[in-house]
Amino acid sequence: MGRHGVLIVDHQNLIGQTKELGLEDLDPDWLINSSLRIADCEAFIVVTDLTVLSPISNVQYLYEAERWSSAGYRIMHAPPRRVRLTATNSEASATETNGKRFKCKDMSDGGVRAEIRQWCQVPEITDIMLFSHDVDFAQDMLWVATSTGKHTVLLHMG
């Protein structure tokens, strides 16, 4: 039996790494080709908040989604959650919070975790590949390996 995998991409993390390395763009096919060296892939998933501005192009990820979709990726939008700002001390001023009462909290980590757990339920999948530089997923990947017996692969640049 061959190896069958799924590639899950932490998109905002990928774009951050791309910028940090001084690259102006990243070809989505590069990730596909890298993961196909490990296993035959059943799916390629990009988890992102489509409303966030790319630090490279300064446009919303929504406008770059077609490029990823055309390459064969399924886009999983992880919308932000509104969080009420609370003053931690009595001297907090409106200028410190820019006059805002709410801020948006990124929820893409939850989206990545949901994809990992969903694909663990598919019996034919032998490999869960994650592209992220975020160590927050170490426990999730360990859980996959120990609880499900699936191979886990962490891909990153740099």
CATH fold group: Rossmann fold
Distance between the termini: 33 Å
Give the biggest sheet.
Answer: 5 strands, parallel
How many individual β-strands? 7
CATH level 4 superfamily: 5'-nuclease
Could you tell me the radius of gyration in angstroms?
A: 18 Å
| Structural class determined from secondary elements | alpha/beta
Question: Count of DSSP helices?
Answer: 5
Give, in order, the helices and strands. EHHEHEEEHEHE
CATH class equals: Alpha Beta
- Name the assembly state: single chain
Record the strand order, biggest sheet: 3-2-1-6-7
Helix content: 25-40%
Write the layout of secondary structure elements.
Layout: E1 4-10, H1 11-20, H2 28-36, E2 40-48, H3 65-70, E3 74-77, E4 81-84, E5 102-105, H4 108-120, E6 127-131, H5 138-148, E7 151-155
Helix pairs in contact: 4-5
